[in-house]
Every structure is written in structure tokens, then in C-alpha cells.
Design a protein that fits this description.
- This protein starts with a helix and ends with a strand.
- The protein is an all-alpha fold.
- The chain contains 19 helices and six strands.
- The strands form three sheets. The chain has a two-stranded antiparallel sheet. Strands 3-4 form a two-stranded antiparallel sheet. Strands 5-6 form a two-stranded antiparallel sheet.
- 66% of the residues lie in helices and 3% in strands.
């Protein structure tokens, strides 16, 4: 009898749990239906669904999958159509333009190795075929037009708020437009490239800053975008290692073999390093975030495998800073600490066992940093000297982006596009040489504004964003990312969110401050 009674109790408990589960499911469905009902009263069902679809954190992964498929199938044109069509829909129908950051981010990897115009990737002429070029230009014009219409509507509705950062960017844009003015070798290409730079800095900033709906999910979404990007990058990097011959032959490394169509090893290293702050930030948010902590170690390893010296050096600085989120915010400090500590121990053991091979590889990578006892920096010291000489020739407005002083030097244009100039591989030297005192002063003011913006409202989320911005700025002291068009877009995306959150209400449960400094 006791057994029967016990069995009956179990059946009753099971029935109760099933009923409770069924009730919860029905309750969840009712909430969703009521939400749809409320939303559709304010806006059309189509518009609401589009906002939900593009605002979902699935969208970045879908975009990554499309870009990866197009990369290996050579369907570059389809990738352009995907970005243009989704971009136009977001710009015209979505209230929140945060999903547009996804498209700007994946533009950096849109060109396949097969059809790249880059000299390093085979110098393909596919994109310059009249039929293909006409379609690409049409798509770009339509996308830009949609952005301009969105800006016009925003100004008509008086939604744009003028901030000190906006005026600082205006000053910087003027400096770009005046680059090389009155110099001996001035060319119209200086003005053209200055216009490109000004439009990118001001256009994207104005478009995004006041069209972003900042809430508790915004930073998660942006971090997810770069998580999706990092998966694409790691996949392409490792596939390249397994499918490309000649990267490592008889103990010698050949970095030139690491070409990806949309960039070379330095570009790969930069993008991988830029993804690390996002991955560690996400690792601090979730219960099983330790999986992402492990993945962050994979990203550091990938930075090394990219054979980019600047990325390796950047990882030494950026990765420890990125781990701040794990220390401050997560409750799994012990697990994350064990993962990082274990990875460090494994690295030390591997280096000790394979010391000869590791030492030989790194000596090859850094062999031309110091030549004959003098700092050479792979030709960078000569570039900096040339930049200083150019600055002295025209100290007010510089000698321009197309002065011709770098022809035949260590600088080279990997894009294959004549509209992209040669660079001095350092932001400060570049501003001084190309834009003179006017440009250098405008840039330094802009940098001070960025620092003050951060100090005015220091939160964990904005610290994550600050580390991401710092990643680009640090690497730009050794490379050209702040003046290359696509990486510049990423910088402005970060900056737009940064400024949009500087007036966040202190003490908000969604964005609790670490400390507040009035500036």
C-alpha cells in the first residue's frame, strides 16, 4: 500500500509539473501576442518585425555566414547586394540604426581573395569590369542616398543634438579638406581624399549618434557583432594555413602568403585584436561566459598566427586591459582566473619545449626591427624621418596625402586602388606631414575630447568601448588604420556609441557607473 501511495504521489507531482510547464508556455505565448498587439498599434506589423529581425543578435551571425560563403565562392557581387539591400531597409524602416553597425563592420571583409584588386592577392580586375562596376556603383549610390535621406529627416525633426565632439570632428574634417594646400606638389587628389575622410568622419557620426536607441542590450549587440566577425576571421585564418603552401618552409616564415583579398596579415591581426575586447566583455555577462574566456585565448593565439608584429605587440597591451571586465563584473572570477592562468602555463611549457623553433620564428618576424644596432622598425624610422621633413616643408597645411614623397619607400599600397595614398604608418606623423599644424592641432583636440567624454561617465560598458577605441589608436601608431577608409568606419561607429552614452543617467541599473568625474 505504501508503494502504491508513493507511486500515486509521483504521478500527481508529474501531472502538476506538466500543468505548470504548459501554463508557463501559454503565458509566454500570451505575452508575445500582447507585445505584438501593442507594437502594431504604434507602427505597422512589417516595420515592427524588421526592427526585431535586424535588432536580433542573430543578424550579425547571419551576416557573417553570408560573407564567409561569398568569400569562398567568389560571389562578391551578391555580398554587395546583401549589404546594400539590408542597409537600405535598415536606414529607411528601422527606428534604431544599431544594426547598421553590423553592415559597416562586415564591409571590412567583403572582398574575396579570388576577385581582390590587391596586388598581394593577384590583382584581379573583376570588380572593374563595366557590368560589375556599374552595379557596385549603383548599389553604393542607393545606400548613400538612403543615409542622406535619413539625415535630412533627422534634421527636419530636430533630433540631432550638437555636441562638442561634433564640432571637434568638423575641425578635423576641415583639416582633411585643407591637406597640402599651397604646397609645391599640391594635386586635386589631395582634395578628393580629404573629402572622403571628411564624409566618413562626419557622415557616419551624424547618421548614427542620435539614431541609436541606447539601452541594456546595445553594448551586448555591438559586442556580438565583433564576436561574429572574429569567428569569420579565425575560420579564414586557419583555412588559409591549411590550404596555402609556402607559409612555413624549411623553418622560414613567409608572411606575404597570408593574403585575404580584403587585406593582408596586418589587416587580419588588427581585426582579430579589435575583437578581443568584445569577446571578453561578453564573457563577463553570461553564466557560462568561461567558454568565451577560452575563446579569447584562441583569439590571442590567432593574433600571433596572423604574423602581424603590431597585433602581437597590441595583444600584450590590449588583452590584459580587456580582462578588466572579467575582474570587475563577472562572478566567475575563479574559473576565468584558472583558464587564463592555465593558458599562460601551457604557453610557457610549449615555448620551453619548442624554444629553438619559437625563437627562430620570432627572430625572423622581428629581424628588421633593429638593423646594424639601430632601430629600423621595418622601414618605419625612415618613414617618420620623411614625414618630419615634409612637415618642415609646409608646416601650416602640410604637403598633402599625395605629396609623392613616399614613392619607392618602405610604404606601399596593398589595396590596388590609386585613390588610396601611401601612408607614414603613424597617426601623428601622418597628420603632421599631410595636414601640418592645422591638422595636428585638430587631431589632438579630438583626442582630448575623447578622453574627457570617457571620464565624464565611466561605466563597465563604456570602458569596454574605450578599450576597443584604444585598440585602433594603439595599432595606428604603427600602421595606417586611422586613415584607411574601412577601419576608419569602425572607429567612427565606436565613437558614435561612445558619445551617445556620455550623458547616460548615473546610477541606472542598466548602466551602473564605476565612478563619475565632472569635466
Amino acid at each position: 500500500m505504501q508503494k502504491l501511495k508513493s507511486r500515486g504521489d509521483n504521478v500527481d507531482n508529474l501531472s502538476f509539473r506538466l500543468y505548470n510547464t504548459k501554463y508557463k508556455i501559454l503565458q509566454r505565448v500570451a505575452i508575445i501576442l500582447s507585445t505584438v498587439s501593442v507594437k502594431t498599434k504604434k507602427e505597422s506589423t512589417t516595420k515592427w518585425l524588421l526592427n526585431r529581425a535586424f535588432g536580433s543578435r542573430v543578424f550579425p551571425f547571419v551576416t557573417a555566414a553570408v560573407m564567409l560563403a561569398c568569400y569562398y565562392t567568389g560571389m562578391d557581387l551578391f555580398a554587395f547586394y546583401y549589404v546594400a539591400v539590408t542597409g537600405i531597409i535598415i536606414l529607411t524602416l528601422c527606428d534604431d540604426l544599431t544594426p547598421f553597425i553590423t553592415l559597416l563592420t562586415f564591409l571590412t571583409v567583403i572582398i574575396s581573395h579570388k576577385h581582390s584588386p590587391s596586388v598581394a592577392s593577384g590583382n584581379s580586375g573583376y570588380l572593374f569590369q563595366p557590368a560589375v562596376l556599374a552595379q557596385v556603383i549603383t548599389l553604393v549610390v542607393l545606400l548613400v542616398s538612403a543615409g542622406i535621406v535619413r539625415i535630412i529627416i533627422m534634421f527636419c525633426q530636430r533630433k540631432f543634438k550638437f555636441t562638442p565632439m561634433f564640432f571637434g570632428l568638423c575641425a578635423l574634417s576641415v583639416a582633411f579638406l585643407l591637406n597640402g594646400l599651397f604646397s609645391k606638389g599640391y594635386t586635386p587628389m589631395n582634395l578628393l581624399y580629404g573629402i572622403f575622410q571628411a564624409l566618413i568622419y562626419l557622415g557616419i557620426f551624424v547618421l548614427l549618434k542620435d539614431n541609436l536607441k541606447i539601452n541594456g542590450k546595445t553594448f551586448k549587440y555591438i559586442a556580438t557583432v565583433f564576436l561574429a566577425l572574429s569567428i569569420l576571421l579565425v575560420a579564414e585564418l586557419f583555412i588559409t594555413y591549411f590550404t596555402t603552401e609556402g607559409i612555413y618552409v624549411n623553418g622560414e616564415l613567409h608572411r606575404s602568403k597570408l593574403s585575404f583579398g580584403w587585406g593582408v596579415y596586418n589587416t587580419m591581426g588588427m581585426l582579430l585584436l579589435l575583437c578581443i575586447p568584445s569577446v571578453t566583455y561578453l564573457a563577463s555577462l553570461y553564466k557560462h561566459g568561461w567558454i568565451l574566456t577560452v575563446y579569447s585565448v584562441v583569439l590571442v593565439l590567432s593574433c600571433i598566427l596572423s604574423l602581424s608584429r603590431s597585433a602581437m605587440l597590441g595583444a600584450v597591451v590590449i588583452y590584459p586591459l580587456s580582462l578588466i571586465y572579467l575582474i570587475v563584473k563577472t562572478k566567475q572570477r575563479l574559473v576565468n582566473g584558472l583558464i587564463i592562468g592555465g593558458a599562460a602555463i601551457v604557453a610557457i611549457i610549449v615555448v620551453a619545449i619548442k624554444w629553438d623553433s619559437v625563437a627562430n620564428s620570432f627572430s625572423q618576424i622581428f629581424e628588421n626591427v633593429i638593423v646594424n644596432g639601430q632601430l629600423n622598425g621595418s622601414g618605419r624610422m625612415k618613414l617618420y624621418k620623411t614625414a618630419w621633413e615634409e612637415f618642415l616643408k609646409a608646416p601650416v597645411f602640410g604637403t598633402g596625402f599625395f605629396s609623392g614623397s613616399l614613392e619607392g619607400s618602405a610604404a606601399y599600397n596593398a589595396s590596388g586602388l590609386d585613390i588610396i595614398p601611401l601612408f607614414y604608418h603613424n597617426t601623428l606623423f601622418q597628420m603632421a606631414a599631410s595636414c601640418g599644424i592645422v591638422g595636428l592641432a585638430a587631431y589632438l583636440v579630438h583626442r582630448c575630447q575623447t578622453v574627457f567624454s570617457f571620464l565624464g561617465n565611466v561605466t563597465v560598458e563604456r570602458t569596454y568601448l574605450a578599450v576597443s577605441i584604444l585598440t585602433i589608436l594603439f595599432l595606428s601608431l604603427l600602421d595606417v588604420h586611422m586613415f584607411d577608409i574601412l577601419p576608419t568606419m569602425l572607429y567612427i561607429c565606436f565613437l558614435s556609441v561612445f558619445v551617445a552614452t556620455e550623458k547616460k543617467k548615473t546610477g541606472s541599473p542598466e548602466n551602473p557607473p564605476l565612478f563619475i568625474i565632472e569635466v
